[in-house]
């Protein structure tokens, strides 16, 4: 229509990642808060907890990836 069509070369995946194993709307809504609480509880120090609350979720994911790579 406007000459801006670009064919997608990668397979697109839709939905919540990681995939939730529940269709209960209460569990789905609170799953993020549950995960955050778990991360806060298991954090090694107060500075890390502060960063979990203040920085983006991408930061937390990057920290988990660094830990996984260091364990290998």
Describe the structure.
This protein has a domain at 25-71. The protein has helices at residues 25-42, 46-54, 57-71. The model has no long low-confidence stretch (mean pLDDT 88). The relative contact order is 0.07. Helices cover 58% and strands 0% of the residues. The chain has 72 residues and is mainly alpha-helical.
Number of helices: 3
Strand content: under 5%
Helix percentage range: 55-70%
The overall average pLDDT, rounded, is 88
- Helix-strand makeup class: mainly alpha
Low-confidence runs of at least 5 consecutive residues: none
Described by strand count, sense and barrel closure, the largest sheet is: none
Span of the ends, CA to CA: 50 Å
What is the alpha-carbon Rg in Å?
17 Å
Element-level helix/strand string? HHH
Question: What would the principal axes of the Cα set say about the shape?
Answer: extended
Brief synopsis:
The chain has about 70 residues and is mainly α. The protein has helices at about 25-40, 45-55, 55-70. It is extended, with a radius of gyration of 17 Å.
Give descriptors for this structure.
mainly alpha, 72 residues
Mind sketching the topology for me?
Layout (H helix, E strand, L loop, with lengths): L24 H18 L3 H9 L2 H15 L1
Helix pairs in contact: 1-2
């Amino acid at each position: 229509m406007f000459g801006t069509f670009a064919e997608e070369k990668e397979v697109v995946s839709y939905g919540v990642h990681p995939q939730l194993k529940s269709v209960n709307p209460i569990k789905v809504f609170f799953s993020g808060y549950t995960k955050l609480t778990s991360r806060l509880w298991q954090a090694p120090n107060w500075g890390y907890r502060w960063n979990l609350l203040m920085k983006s979720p991408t930061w937390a994911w990057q920290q988990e990836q660094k830990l996984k790579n260091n364990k290998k």
